[in-house]
Amino acid sequence: MTSTPGAPDATLPDRPPVLVGAAELPALRRRVQAVLITTQILGGLGIAIGVALAAVLARDVSGSEALSGLASTATVAGPALLAMPLASLMASRGRRAGLVLAYLLGAVGAGVTVLGAVVDSFPLLLAGLVGFGAGSSANLAARFAAADLAEPDRRARAISTVVWATTIGAVLGPNIAAPAGRSVSGLGIPATAGPFVWAAGVFVVSAVVVAVLLRPDPLLTARALADTGAPGAAAEERSLRAGMRAVRESPRARLALVTVAGSHTAMVSIMSMTPVALTHHGADIQLIGLVISGHIAGMYAFSPLMGWLSDRLGRLSVIGLAVGLIGMAALLAGTAGASHGRTALGLFVLGLGWSAGLVSGSALLTDSVPGAARAAVQGLSDFVMNTAAGVGGLAAGLIVSQVGYGPLNAIAACLLLPMAALAVRGSLREG
């Protein structure tokens, strides 16, 4: 059976329509990267528009500052709940099917969030934020899609390039939160819910771009180029159970999981409550947007540097850098008090630390497990990462309401200890 290049995947769900030759592979890599960069810009815009005011909106609807932390918990609960089903779908149908589903769920969630704000229902608002968080599942999964066809010695740079692309949309997003809020005036929609109206539209566009242009599927293509064994055996090797077994058997994979989970949880815990802390010191929505924009710039703008360092100096060195940066950020933000500039600097450094942890951890994870099990292991990674961050976001609201923003930063810094200990152990083994 033959297929036309660029046509939809063939009847068999675990094979692309055409095996790509060595001469065609560089062009395919460039095309896949271009599509992923486009969707990262759009997806980053949609996510950042909503995240900038999620905690404030939750506080306004619930009437409780302690409950405002549930907003970040809900937004990371979506990716956590979706991670394993999404991994299973990608393992059987490829990256395209999973990314489209995640973006569409994000659009629906954004719509439900708006509805919850309109009817003043906190449970409905949280349900919507869970769905909205699914949009970030797509952006997270895209970093692994970038690695599917990458050469091993350029894998971290491929991941970081796609992560970097989120900078454009993510930095722009918080700064258009105010115009998005004004755009719904007169429609009976609260201004703080306006950004979610825009986010819904952006996610739909992202889904369409992936569905139309991400062909042939990078994961299915990479798998077809690598598979030489019996189809039944390959399917078993790609199961979620096989992915969990691969992590148990690899100390480096376990370090990678701890790195991405620890970096993400510390970042979410601090970042989610910073807007609330800023309002305590007289900051308005415009200033909050600028601080969050700087934070997001730190997260994404320097990711190519983190990828280059990870490929050149090694994954463990950049994991150590992540520990140092996040620890410094917690110190700066936690002791800022009424200094908005110090808070902004702390959030920027926090973004840099997150970038170092995510890029190096993701590359190390991909390096450390068999190719057939990678999609399942990557899904497990996102599940662990977002579940831990969800717990962190919930605890962050309670901590700030009880003891303050400074102690929250100190507690978040303690999350770095397991990461640092495993990285040192790994360095000693390699030495």
Which tags fit this structure?
80% helix; 431 residues; mainly alpha
Blueprint of the fold:
Layout: H1 25-62, H2 69-93, H3 95-118, H4 122-147, H5 155-175, H6 177-183, H7 194-213, H8 218-226, H9 231-237, H10 240-248, H11 251-280, H12 285-300, H13 303-313, H14 315-334, H15 340-368, H16 374-402, H17 405-414, H18 416-430
Helix pairs in contact: 1-2, 1-4, 1-5, 1-7, 1-11, 2-3, 2-4, 2-16, 3-4, 3-7, 4-5, 4-16, 5-12, 5-13, 5-15, 6-7, 10-16, 11-14, 11-15, 11-16, 11-17, 11-18, 12-15, 13-14, 13-15, 14-15, 14-17, 14-18, 16-17
Number of extended strands? 0
The radius of gyration over CA amounts to: 21 Å
Query: Mean of residue pLDDT?
Result: 83
Based on secondary structure, the structural category is mainly alpha
Instruction: Give the distance, in angstroms, between the N- and C-terminal Cα atoms.
Output: 52 Å
Major sheet, described briefly? none
The general outline is: globular
Low-confidence stretches: 1-18, 228-233
List the helices and strands in order.
HHHHHHHHHHHHHHHHHH
Helix content: over 70%
Q: In percent terms, what proportion of residues is strand?
A: under 5%
So how many helices? 18
